[in-house]
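Input structure tokens:
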């Protein structure tokens, strides 16, 4: 719905380019910080494998459990190879069509509300910079681990 003065057609100014920007993000569930953010013009298995490598580089010695949805770009031979080459990286996939379970989806929603929804940024590059800055500078509290009694689970592995 668009509001305008009676008798005046509303004018919506848009950047006429067909450019798009996508983001990959990895939320550290212990700290609430985006541990890794990557901007890319496309999303596919090859780019997803690069993102996994970026996570592995960010945490060079730690075992990593990555909770991932079933997006098509999260599957493919590049992903399979990356996982085979890096046994310290384990992926747990969310059930189909359950974005409410995925803490990263809540990060996307909060960032869109803060940066792009109901805001007037005319250039995609500026919007992408603002989006990335918000991701990297904002803590995103998450109750995901506590919902599944993370402290008790930790005690099992000590």
């Amino acid at each position: 719905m668009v509001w305008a003065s009676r008798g005046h057609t509303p004018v919506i100014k848009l950047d006429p380019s067909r450019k798009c920007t996508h983001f990959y993000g990895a939320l550290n569930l212990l700290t609430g910080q985006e541990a890794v953010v990557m901007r890319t013009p496309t999303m596919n298995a090859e780019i997803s494998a690069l993102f996994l490598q970026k996570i592995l580089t960010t945490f060079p010695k730690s075992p990593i459990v990555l909770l991932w949805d079933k997006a098509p770009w999260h599957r493919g031979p590049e992903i399979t190879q990356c996982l085979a080459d890096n046994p310290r990286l384990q992926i747990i996939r969310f059930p189909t069509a359950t974005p409410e379970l995925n803490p990263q989806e809540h990060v996307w929603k909060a960032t869109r509300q803060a940066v792009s929804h109901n805001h007037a940024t005319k250039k995609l590059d500026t919007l992408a910079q603002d989006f990335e800055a918000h991701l990297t500078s904002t803590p995103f509290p998450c109750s995901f681990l506590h919902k599944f009694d993370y402290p008790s689970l930790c005690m099992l592995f000590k």
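The first strand starts at residue 22 and ends at 27. The chain has six helices and four strands.
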